[in-house]
Amino acid sequence: MEDQVTKIDIRKDENIVYKRTDLLVDRPLSYCPGCGHGVVHRMLMETLEEMDIQDKTIGVSPVGCSVLAYDFMNIDMLGAAHGRAPALATAIKRLWPERFVFTYQGDGDLAAIGTAETIHACNRGENFVIIFINNGIYGMTGGQMAPTTLPGMRSSTSPYGRDVATMGHPLKITELIAQLPGTYYVTRQAVHTPNHVRRTKKALRKAFENQKRNTGISFIEVVSNCNSGWKMTPVQSNKWMEDNMFPFYPLGDIKVDGQLVPKKETAEKE
Amino acid sequence: MGELRLMKGNEAVAEAAIRAGCDGYFGYPITPQSEIMEYLMAEKPHERTGMVVLQAESETASINMLYGGAGTGKMVMTSSSSPGISLMQEGISYMAGAELPCLLVNIVRGGPGLGTIQPSQADYFQAVKGGGHGDYKMIVLAPASVQEMCDFVKLGFELSFKYRTPAFILSDGAIGQMMEKVELFDPIPRRTEAELIKQCPWAATGKPKNREHIIITSLDLDPAGQERVNLKLQAKYKIMEENEVRYETIQCDDAEYIFVAFGLSARICQKSIDLARKKGIKVGLFRPITLSPFPTKPLGEMSKRVKGILVVEMNAGQMIEDVRLSVHSDQKVEHYGRFGGIIPSPDEVVAALEQKIIGG
Amino acid sequence: MTEEIIIAGFGGQGVLSMGKILAYSGVMQNKEVSWMPSYGPEMRGGTANVTVIISDERISSPILNSYDTGIILNQQSLDKFEKTIKPGGLLIYDPNGITHPPVRKDINIYSIAAADEAGKIGLSKVFNMIVLGGFLKLKPLVNPENIHKGLEKSLPARHHKLIPDNEKAIELGKELLIPVVVLN
Fold first, then answer.
1. Is the pTM of this model over 0.90?
2. ipTM value of the model?
3. How many cross-chain Cβ pairs, B to C, lie less than 8 Å apart?
4. Going by CATH, does the domain composed of C2-181 fall within 3.30.565.10?
5. Which domain holds residue B83?
């Protein structure tokens, strides 16, 4: 029994194989089990830690499920009014050009109520990072239809499925803003598998490195699940996301270094 | 003596902003106040002081740019006219809730709706009673001259930082568009980053290792916590009432009657005093300079010495409610107003005094 | 001393700038001044007017309904403002385009053919300064030195080369006044 590892041994520094970044506050996340938000929070904070820019970063959280993101991210943050995060970030970055600035927004926030702020900040080529979590639904308010809800998809305000004839089509805002000269890096990622998590992390690093060089907007969409809103188990929701969301919102880079990526290369090859 | 210039009220606001050490102006064009941003852009304040000036995509974006800038301790402002200010109300409420300083300028035009581009005072209620949702107040300054347009920019910034609250200049299209002699105050340098962090330890400026992270928000999902926020705000407003009331009296010493008027209406009433006194009517003027906090006590004291009060406003009767709350219920208080962009003339004000107060 | 003046005519006649130069000259002479324009869509080709007040004391209302002096450059403005001149006051008008001349007998009235003269001598850009010259001849509120400073302050630097033309026009205006009604 002598060589049995005790709890105390496990906690020794030399035995650590994984450590939660100090840039995440030590408190339970308010997100539903199975939700992708927590993973993106971690990737984002790890990126800032690795770049050692915690003291130089100012974040802006939205209204939506991640309204309390500032409680979990151990950096200075502002909670914006619904949809207005890019307006806040515009002013912050212009008034503090040496700081790193990002917004963290959901689909309702970024692509419905805040569409004007999103498009104009992108079009002006503001030098901050936009992280856009797209789960095709309003999670916080109880599963209503979002601008990105798929055709036929059920929500509490489209209980018989989204009828595009009367409710409009889902908005591919990421493809839309990629057309604007002010965006420099536009990519669509996911966080439901370790492989995808790694890619998202790489994208985040690239985005913040871009900001160092004042290139204009770096925009990372993360297609995510909402098992609560979609009324599924986490596993079912990830499967549903792969089968339904990814065909409509294909993963991969859309614009890199200011150049649009040719369409056939856009779809991710698994 | 500072530099003398002949300036429009709008231009004076812009020049004063640069001189006050303002860090950022964010706005959207609307008549009759577009000269403010035009002047700023022409002056290249980025070269003069490093001030940022940005034309936003809407008033909604402007006010939220202010929220962003103010949350990081920067000295920020916007200006607009009535419909644009309505559009900003949500953001103003957020800033009041998050206790952020900023300066807002409303060059009021006639309403409701798209209304007219001519001057009005019909946004009094909106400015002094909150305007947006929730229990909050702002410091509201009412300039009556181009000189005060200039001076109140500096004063507004000072008060907004002193109390961490939005400060509001309630002016109108006539004062914005007219030119008068202005003595400009000497430029104040913009704060350095170190000065800002020292002055605003509450601001989100980037978290050093040795302090807790700062969160700027107006959200507290716990009702007990939100009640504490409200109690704190109310306590602050109480202190503002005690310390920041400003007003002016003109020819009140021997007055049997007084006009109560602010801004442009107060200027018109000064002429009306001259006309009335030529007729032997002893009338004076009580001019609230801070509309919020309202000079309740001094007006109440003065009202005891006069036979009647005529409240003159370019609206259908808004400040008169605060006047009535300031005076004894037996006091005779009447209103004379023109609206929709019509400015009352000095002699029709005298006629109203004779008819509604002296004869009535 | 307080002089309350209305200047009115078509948009584009230089009504507002005449008022501004007069007011700025007043500032240079250490007077209190106010310049209150009519503003809005009517400025584009319609009528434009500006109230200028120059005083030794703090100015009360910048907006008035009676004036010491009216400087009138078109028929619409004459129709509107003739009746607003205080008894004993002054009305100066350019007869160009005037079909119904002023009729009051209780005010001083002068005509000044500034538009014609400006056309003749090729100084149509400073037509308004000819009119101002006429006014200053009758009411020398500000001295030439301060008018020069007022011109410098009012005109953008790129137009400063036109200051001599402006001053020439002011001097010319002083010679062009024709008395119509002169009270004793």
1. yes
2. 0.95
3. 74
4. no
5. 3-193
